[in-house]
């Protein structure tokens, strides 16, 4: 399977993890990749949704430089400060500082413009455990029955960052977060997004709700909201919609935040697990009705 840019590019060697979802990119050094190779990576990312790169030698500087070649970087997070003053773009997910991601989520959907994608690098790993799984939200949508697709095409959901980060913003940042989309984050007002997101590059539809940040479906009763969301979450995380990655030292993962959700296993006890993440600036989600 080969992806190329408009200019001829060396073929990417992909080891697909599923028929349509996920792949390991074989033999590409991200630190020395050419512009043409990264254009091919960018195309493969949209098509396969999550890509894995083994044996990389990136440090914090290299990770940021790679991200800037792939798109426009956001700050580390709307609320959480960067890993240090020299790298405000890097979000350190550190189990020693309550850095866990053991709930299915799509990154930062509680903001009006969630990130386009994420690049995650393993920094310190437990001897075993700490795998991460990704779910294909487009395949999940397409495998719903037609009547359910017709229903969710018309729905809007509320996403609320206070559930996860409200306390952090108030207590650890003194009510003053990072500059996100040109404005300093001082509170996390809930936002609405379509339940079904149309991918801006492919036009494919995918489910755009997640247990981490979606609070409820707008315009329906609480019972109806719970029923609809429970149905969608159970369907999204069916085994045939999921790929799972066992981390090794030097691993880098990239994913399209517009078409996936992910979950990190918290099964390594007191062993420390540290991951560094950067995110690419995205756009406002658009649904079928738009």
Give structural notes.
Pfam families: TauD. It comes from Sphaerisporangium album. Keywords: Dioxygenase, Iron, Metal-binding, Oxidoreductase. This is Taurine dioxygenase. The protein has one domain (13-280): Clavaminate synthase-like (Double-stranded beta-helix). Helices cover 22% and strands 25% of the residues. The chain has helices spanning 35-48, 60-70, 137-142, 146-152, 162-172, 222-236; strands at residues 13-16, 23-26, 50-53, 91-94, 117-124, 132-136, 156-159, 179-180, 183-184, 191-194, 196-198, 205-207, 214-217, 242-245, 252-256, 260-264, 274-280. A hairpin with a 2-residue loop joins strand 8 (179-180) and strand 9.
Name its key features:
290 residues; alpha+beta; 7-stranded mixed beta sheet; Double-stranded beta-helix
Provide a count of the helices: 6
How many DSSP E strands? 17
The largest sheet has its strands arranged as: 1-2-3-15-5-17-4
Detail the poorly predicted runs: 1-9
Helix content: 10-25%
CATH class: Alpha Beta
CATH superfamily grouping: Clavaminate synthase-like
Total number of distinct structural domains: 1
Radius of gyration: 18 Å
Instruction: Give the averaged pLDDT, no decimals.
Output: 95
What would you call the shape?
globular
- CATH topology type: Double-stranded beta-helix
Distance between the termini: 33 Å
Protein name: Taurine dioxygenase
Keywords: Dioxygenase, Iron, Metal-binding, Oxidoreductase
Pfam family, one: TauD
Cofactor: Fe(2+)
